[in-house]
Amino acid sequence: MPSSPAAFRHPTAALLIGISMVFTAATAWWIRSGPPPAPVPEARDRLFPFRDPATGHGGYIDDGGKVVVPARFDHTDLFRAGLGLVEAGGRAGYIDRTGGWVIAPRFELDPAFGSDVAARPFWEGRAAARMGGAWGFIDPQGSWLIRPRFKGLDGFQVIGDFHENRAWFRGPAPDNTGATAHRYGFIDPEGRVVIEPQYQAANDFGQGLAAVLVDDEWGFVDTEGRMRIRPDFDGAGVFAQSLCPALDGDRWGFIDRSGDWVIAAVFTEARGFREGLAPVHDGNAWGYLNPEGTMVLAPRFDNAFGFSQGRAAVVERGVAGYIDPEGRRVWPKTDR
Prior knowledge:
This protein is mostly beta strands. Among the domains are: about 1-125, no CATH class; about 240-335, no CATH class. It is about 5% helix and about 50% strand.
């Protein structure tokens, strides 16, 4: 299986984009699965995290590069549902657009992830958060919707985020010898188990399908747990825009909802489609592909992530920033 992309904290002479927690939080299980979903600030928020190397602190900019929340937090993550996930003083909480606390920093860093993950951004009105050594889900006021009961095991992430009213979790399940193993299943927004833990690994739902690992091969189930695409892939991502990254041997391509190859597996890495473009690596650099398989932005980036609100996070020539769909750097405003 391919290794997970590193947390997105690339050195730069200007400012650093502070979106690393999405990838840090996903690191353990993406090692076994595939490319991480692109970070997606909600349309009404239009705020993007950044990091100031002079202080090491994070804040938020708008899509034009103007600082909206000054860099004064230990770490900043995605701004979703009107709330930005930040870390301060070794704990995580959530702020509004003014930088004021909405949910005070009270969630504990998880040592299983290098003391770097205590909570995650909101998805479908819920955010995963850690307290008392276990993970649960909170609402936008900070009240528990699902009390913390998912405990870390062997350094693995134990819950995912909610997508299409499903979140994967890792829990104990008997194996075929009767011994207890740890397998992946899915819960609903009330915390009820709707698909029993039975898979070696699992990804988020996208367009009604989620990738699951069965006997060391990846297939796709629907929200009721019925296998819709038989396990036949060496890695798999998340469906978006009717296409999903999939791994054949050591090369990535894209399949459709029938499991047929639409874009041949010729890339060393690939990430899902967002706003009509998908980041792919040709063995030398990252570029962007359209759904027809045409390379729209030629490979030139050290690292590249999906588009949201007309912006994509990239690293080019050692400088982290944001580009527009034409590949023009829109932040930081530096000469190329």
